[in-house]
Structure formats: structure tokens, C-alpha cells
């Protein structure tokens, strides 16, 4: 059962392995991906970065597997500060000889909270995803949390128009 308490006004955040774990992070990724797809005409590209917390990588793997399963493509910018994640969401990337502008971003971070916390800060179309939108995501997950997921991840290299390399998880 996913807890409503992790769906806060400006982010999704909770105590690792009590409120937030790999299973519900996959569900969050999947249903967030579907939500993003409702707002985007083409296949969405999503910037995802994470902070230095020891459990951030676990959340990253779970989140992106859900995003991929929903049909989104993930640009992995790895271990970065939150500001770098936001900056990356405004850049253009060369992927398979196409210029791609990300449609959304997720930063996995516990922010200023104690080390037992972690979570997701989300933007869609360079606008914050917050308030009623986060609550609507919770209700979508609650209604479908028995979804039979079979997540997958593949990796492709991509580079920015300034020749910086990132991984594309598609």
C-alpha cells in the first residue's frame, strides 16, 4: 500500500524502506510517465538525476524502469546537484541524429532532510509538478497499484549539442 503522506505539496518524499522503496518507486515512475505522456504529443524524454545519498541509485533504477515501461525515454545525467538537473532540462541533445529537447525532469533528492529521507522533485515542460497534480498522481497509483509490472531498461549513448555525453535509457 502506497502512503498518501509521501505525496507532498512540492515533491514526493519519504523515509527510505518505510514510506519509499523500489516497488512503489516503480509505480510512481510508471504512472508519472503516463501522466507526462498525457501532456506531450511525441515520445517524452525525461532528464533524471540523483543526489549522493546511498539509496538514491536504488530509487533511480526503480523509477526509470517504471518510466521506460510507460513508454518514456530517460536521459540519465547521473549524480548531480539539483540545480544541474534543472539546467539539463533546458538543454538540447543529439540522439540518433535528432535534436531532442527534454519534456520533463526528475531529481531524486532528500534535499535538506535527514539522510533517511529521499524523494522526487518533478518538472514537466519546465514547470513545477506540484499540489493537485501530485495528489492526482497518488490517486492514479492508488487505483492501479496492483498493476502487473514487468519493467525493463536498455541504455543508449546521447550527447548534448555541446558534445557532452549522457546515457539515454530507452
Describe the structure.
With 170 residues, the protein is an alpha+beta fold. It has helices spanning 22-39, 56-69, 82-88, 132-144, and strands at 12-15, 45-50, 73-79, 93-95, 98-100, 104-108, 117-124, 127-128, 155-160, 165-169. Strands 1, 2, 3, 4, 5, 6, 7, 8, 9 and 10 form a ten-stranded mixed β-sheet that branches. The longest helix has 18 residues, at 22-39. The radius of gyration is 15 Å and the shape is globular. The relative contact order is 0.23.
Write the layout of secondary structure elements.
Blueprint: E1 12-15, H1 22-39, E2 45-50, H2 56-69, E3 73-79, H3 82-88, E4 93-95, E5 98-100, E6 104-108, E7 117-124, E8 127-128, H4 132-144, E9 155-160, E10 165-169
Parallel strand pairs: 2-3, 2-6
Antiparallel strand pairs: 1-7, 3-10, 4-5, 4-9, 6-7, 7-8, 9-10
Amino acid at each position: 500500500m502506497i502512503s498518501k503522506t509521501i505525496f507532498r505539496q512540492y515533491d514526493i518524499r519519504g523515509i527510505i524502506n518505510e514510506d519509499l522503496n523500489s516497488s512503489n518507486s516503480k509505480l510512481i515512475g510508471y504512472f508519472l510517465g503516463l501522466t507526462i505522456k498525457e501532456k506531450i504529443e511525441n515520445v517524452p524524454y525525461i532528464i533524471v538525476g540523483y543526489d549522493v545519498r546511498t539509496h538514491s541509485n536504488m530509487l533511480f533504477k526503480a523509477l526509470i524502469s517504471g518510466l521506460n515501461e510507460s513508454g518514456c525515454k530517460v536521459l540519465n545525467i547521473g549524480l548531480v546537484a539539483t540545480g544541474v538537473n534543472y539546467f539539463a532540462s533546458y538543454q538540447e541533445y543529439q540522439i540518433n541524429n535528432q535534436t531532442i529537447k527534454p519534456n520533463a525532469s526528475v531529481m531524486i533528492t532528500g534535499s535538506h532532510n535527514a539522510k533517511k529521507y529521499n524523494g522526487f522533485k518533478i518538472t514537466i515542460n519546465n514547470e513545477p509538478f506540484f499540489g493537485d497534480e501530485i495528489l492526482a498522481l497518488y490517486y492514479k497509483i492508488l487505483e492501479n497499484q496492483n498493476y502487473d509490472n514487468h519493467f525493463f531498461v536498455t541504455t543508449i549513448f546521447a550527447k548534448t549539442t555541446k558534445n557532452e555525453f549522457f546515457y539515454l535509457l530507452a
